[in-house]
Amino acid sequence: MSMHDRSWIWNPEWKEELSETTSGGLLHFRKKVNITRLPARPVVISITADTRYKLYVNSKFVHYGPVKGDSQMWFYDTIDLAPFLRAGENTIAVHVLRLYYGTRFGTSFPRLPFGGLRIQHIEDELPSGDEIVDNNDTNASQDQGFSINTDETWETAIDLTTALPVHKEDLFLHIYEAVDKTKASQLNWIPAKQHKVFTAFGLLLPWRLSPRMIPYARLQPAAFQQVHNTRSSLSKSAWDEALLGNSLIILPAGTTHHIEIEAFHHLTAFLDFKFRQPRTAGSKFKVTYSECYEDPPAANNVHIKGDRRDTTKQLLGPNDTFIFGGTALSRRERRATYHAEGDHIEVFSPFHFRTFRFLALDIEVAPDSDLTFLGCTITRTSYPLDVKAHFTASPHAQPDFPVQRLWDTSLLTLENCMHDCYEDCPFYEQLQYAMDTRSSILFTYYISGDDRLARQAIRQLANSFEPGLGLTASRAPCQHLQIIPHFSLFWILMVVDHFEHYADSDFVAQFVPICNAVLETFKRRIEPQYGLIKVYPTEEFWDFVDWTQEWQPFGIPPAGRRSGFQTFTNSLYAYTLQRMIYLYQKQGETNLANQYEAQSKAIVNAIKKYCYDGNFELFTDGLSANIDSKSDFSLHNQVWAVLCGAKTGDKAVQLLSRALSNDSLTSPSIAMSFYTLRAMSIAGNDIYNHHFFNFWQPWLDQLSQNVTTWVEDPVSQRSDCHAWGSAPLHEFLAEVVGVTPLEPGWKKIAFRPRLELFKNVDAKVALHVKDVGSVVAHVVWSSTKEGGFNVAFELKAQSNSAVDVPVVVALPSKQDEVLASSFYLKDVRIGGKEGSKELDV
Fold it and tell me: What local confidence, expressed as pLDDT, does residue 25 receive?
């Protein structure tokens, strides 16, 4: 048994910096092998790096990784190299991005104290020893076969051409590049050094290796749509041909050019800008990434946006810069090139994917040689979401209601916020926040039935649990710990949601102790006099509730700090307890369910007693005895009063009706709108239907401003892509079509179609039925001349076979009834007498 691990290598000349001007750097690693004949079997490796890597074989891109990990789970990828190998000499090359440890930069990218690259053959997949010869270790090759395991036979060089400067427009990512190819001749290839880590007696490596939990990213070609605002000695038509077609364009020596380009929609994509290598060095190329045209921000950095395609405004955002090296580059450097176009081509390929809808290109051509631009390749990247759902419909009373645009925009927004984790906004942060992720996961369940990214998110947030605090981090994985106490409760909701949709008791069981610990942490903050949870006495934690104009700049109701209590905290806590009661009841844990039920009732009673103003007939943001009548009422706390059961039945309907028509209340942002919808659904009495079409006005306003993805919030107008706005995906399927799980794992299904909203519907809802797998519920209804509806419901498994699951049908004109998993109802009436019913099982 070895007492040391030597599987990780690094560059011995690398130095970690604590600079305020740069976030990290890049390194090269390579190894050459000769193959006498191509392997007959897969050449399978595991590969990972700290912080990120790009793998190339013979200058061809193979893979990008690893998935963001943490100190408890550092992911590796498993890759077959055989399709990329050739007879003769092969170069295995890895470009590694290393963000400095211990700095405030690169929040979105977790890393451990040491940089490292690790590649290992997977032994049972090794080809036989006579197929491949390793030039760097002939004896080893003869004895044990081909190996590219990372060791000191690898060469490495620090990439001196690329710096990662800190931009004022970039507060989180810090992966934008300043590339100077004139420094390429300084490249110094040296043998890599193996980390020697003592691992005996239970001592662990810094990286706790784990296979990836999610599938590889989807890579798809994309294109530009239109060229705008050219300031160039060359014609716009020439730029159109170069950027929208396949023509090259020659930029004369000594000229400058500014071009703005629009993609078809908001993108997350890898970019390759290709140029013919100029005869001399010094030409400069700058790319600015923007989500929209906008005015300069206000003094408080609040964005001023309107029509996103108003080209009279500016493109603002972070940028990359590239200085050309020219043909003077040494042959040695060109062997580190990560493209297969040849030595006569210079390609600028930013390491990490970029987020944009618009690009601004600025080019300064050196005075002594022309520059030939060969075009740009765009490769869109996202999580490989397999969308099984669809929704098309015709409203009864609003024929212009843009159902398809709401659906398509929601879907694109969600996809652009899913990569190797769920992301709050890809342009700015790329961080997986618990509140944001909870709703994004539910959207994913309904449109795909895929829970792989959700399982990873639940586990990563669990890994962030701090026992000393009794809370999970607000976001994970992440380089810097942030605590938003409410977000620990949203994480618990994620756990229960997963059980409800998948009934995977073994998966959920590992998180229940942390759920209980979080709930106990909130319970310990209950003040005996009122029976309510106090606000945290420290400002070290962020008691964020919602992005509203009235609660700027931190999204916290002022009544909470003034009175010492936040009604929202208590309502969310009670609601979370109730969700845990559901989990315990379904698992037969009656004692714990009873304990949590008693806690929940006590909190709800305290909310009704101390956080309700009888004069205004509204719940207050803090203690009702200490309110400011002009600022301490919000729609939020009416919504959460219904969600936690402080108002039920007709009283809940009356409360929401008053609140939704009261313009003086602080209104929820798009982030919290999902819960407004949940409250309207729970309240019943058709309040959901009554407000349904008007509810989407903020989304329609965005569409009128030519967005292609939903904005983060209307207050700061920071990001133009945030998936918590994709609520139409959930509402159209779970509420309008009305398909929801009635038993965990969809072992019994509720079907409550809202026939009142749309006269014709054709929809598919993705489910994952326990012990069956992927299932689609196909629902179709159409209005009849007699004033009724013909309704068809059918469940089909992925194998196209029928599914035997009971469906509890609730229609306006009859009591709930259990039907077979496929049926047809004829002439169903919204009100009055029901027509005939025909079953087709």
Answer: 97
Q: How many CA atoms lie within 13 A of 768 on its CB side?
A: 18
pLDDT given at position 132: 41
Q: How many CA atoms lie within 13 A of 742 on its CB side?
A: 16
DSSP strand pairing (224-231 vs 314-315) = unpaired
Q: Are the C-beta atoms of residues 802 and 790 closer than 8 Å to each other? A: no
Helix residue ranges, H only, 611-732? 635-644, 649-660, 670-683, 687-695, 697-704, 727-730
What separation in angstroms does the CA of 317 have from each of 167, 171, 291, 691? 9, 11, 8, 38
Q: Give Rg (Cα) of the chain.
A: 29
Nearest to 441 by CA among 429, 423, 427, 466: 423
Question: How many residues belong to the chain?
Answer: 841
Measured CA to CA, the distance from residue 522 to residue 536 in angstroms comes to: 10
> What does the longest C-alpha to C-alpha distance in the chain come to?
89
Counting as low any pLDDT under 70, the low residues of the chain are: 1, 123-146, 328-336, 813-814, 831-841
Q: Which two tokens stand for residue 781?
A: 């209804």
pTM, full prediction: 0.95
Of all residues in the chain, what percent are helix, strand and coil, respectively (each to 5)? 25, 30, 45
- Please tell me the distance from the alpha carbon of residue 517 to that of residue 835, in angstroms, as a whole number: 53
The predicted structure's pLDDT at residue 123: 62
Q: How far is it, in rounded angstroms, from Cα 591 to Cα 575?
A: 19
CA angle (18, 22, 23) in 5-degree steps:
75
Distance CA 184, CA 172 (A): 29
698: how many CB neighbours lie within 10 A of its CB? 15
How many of the other CB atoms lie within 10 Å of CB of 366?
19
Position 248 scores a pLDDT of 96
pLDDT of residue 133: 38
Distance CA 585, CA 582 (A): 5
Angle at 444 between CA 442 and CA 450, to 5 degrees: 115
Q: What are phi and psi of 120, to 5 degrees?
A: -140, 140
Q: How far, in Å, CA of 469 to CA of 237, rounded? A: 61
Q: How far is CA 531 from CA 490, 559, 648, in A?
A: 22, 18, 21
Distance CA 26, CA 691 (A): 53
What is residue 534's DSSP assignment? B
Secondary element (H or E) of residue 739? strand 739-741
Write down the pLDDT at residue 85.
94
Residue 211, φ and ψ in degrees, nearest 5: -65, 150
